[in-house]
Amino acid sequence: MPLSPSGHTDTFSRDNLPPADQWPDLVFDLPELQYPERLNCAVALLDDTIAAHGADRPCLLSPTETWTYAEVRRTAHQVAAVLVEDLGLAPGNRVLLRGPNTPWLAVCWLGVVLAGGVAVTTMALLRSKELEVIGEIAQLDLALCDTRFRADLDAARIPGLRTVGFGADDADDLSALAAGKYDGFAAVQTAADDVAMFAFTSGTTGRPKCAMHFHRDVLAMADTFSRHVLRPTADDVFTGTPPLAFTFGLGAVLIFPLRVGASTLLVERASPDELAELIAAHRVSVLSTAPLAYRAMIAGGKAPELASLRRCVSAGETLPRSVWEAFHEATGLKIIDGIGSTEMLHIFIACADDDIRPGSTGRPVPGYRATVLGPDGEPVPDGELGSLAVKGPTGCRYLADERQRTYVRNGWNFTGDTYLRDPDGYFWFQARSDDMIVSAGYNIAGPEVEAALMGHPDVSECGVVGVPDSDRGNVVAAYVVLRAGVDGDGAKAKELQDFVKAEIAPYKYPRVVDFVAELPRTNTGKLQRFRLREQAADTDAVPLR
Question: How far apart are CA 182 and CA 185, in angstroms?
Fold first, then answer.
């Protein structure tokens, strides 16, 4: 379909959309997905919600504070005014956001979108080299950064980037600048199909892919999965562990609650025990986290602290049936499993309540269609393996990336997962179709870890794969060939792990380090990762925690 007239004066995003013939088919067959041509999703999430539910309701919570909807709206408008009046933001400029889940990070996201900017939210754990790549791809203009995490951003070589910190008690802090602004900023009248956000996802090459999502997409993820599967109310209290930088987290702990007038507890970091205690203290009713946390809370005897929960969502990695059953036995709650992707923005296959079949991902969320396709691009019979393909109101639009042709084919989004569908229409995950390692809900590209290891002077060669782990689903395993004369012992393994943690985000470090004499390669020199996985299975390697 043709694009609407843009509200952006900076045309970078539209200029870098894939060609129209590489777009997925879009489906808007639900009444709630009929959005107006002019739409700013932050206005819808704040003004429309306040009009329906009131301004004095709790909105953003932390373990120590509560912001009402009125306070969130006022501060978001003031942040937008700082961006435009003090920093010269033009509609369509890209603004990097950096920090853990806090009310201020959420308000910054809303302020950027109100001002017509494109929000580029990043993990607080990313290092300077990773931030440089994001800066190169996104052509960033501004950054709003939690001051505790500014060092790596300042060290990143991002040309022309202007940064304002938040969370410090000084005159240059964003909070001080915003306090002096009028709270009636006139939100930019963006188009429903103007880009509202960039979301980065690592591919198997280690080079991040940038998925671009429209204003209408942000609302669509709430108006499909949240509306039809979660079915939240204004009285719900949400929380979860995924960062706002992950689209899973953005929806689960910000967009979904704001869409219905609920409140959300933003947690910077919490162990499973701490998470359970926060749930009890704040009477949380909707929880989104990874299977590891559900398992750990039950194993730690925390079921009594979870009494306020009525909805639990698991995504980011496969939910083992054993975890589902143990959690159900201990709490009576049925965890909602689901599959989503950064490219599709959020969950598109899931079931709730009595529709759940433990071990199955579920059925397509209302608004989405899914099928299992064979190598010829045709649907395979139920019960046979094939590639999962999806379409709906959201879809993949990579920023100037040839990998668009791989993800989108014949109008379908190919998720890179091998599935089968049963005769009742339930989808059953079998395996990832690429070399992505999913560990405790984090997507980790093996080649990126290899590149970090190769920066160590004692590493001659290395190969990185995921190996099964009972706690994390998979862990990163590195098979390392050291330079001549260097001993491969426990001390050297720890040294390499620490080296990787300093080079890239710490959660990507190899928990298994195995020193080998040589790596399996083809005649042309290509690394055979499948043989490394076989080796891991044969040796039953134990992670170095």
Answer: 7
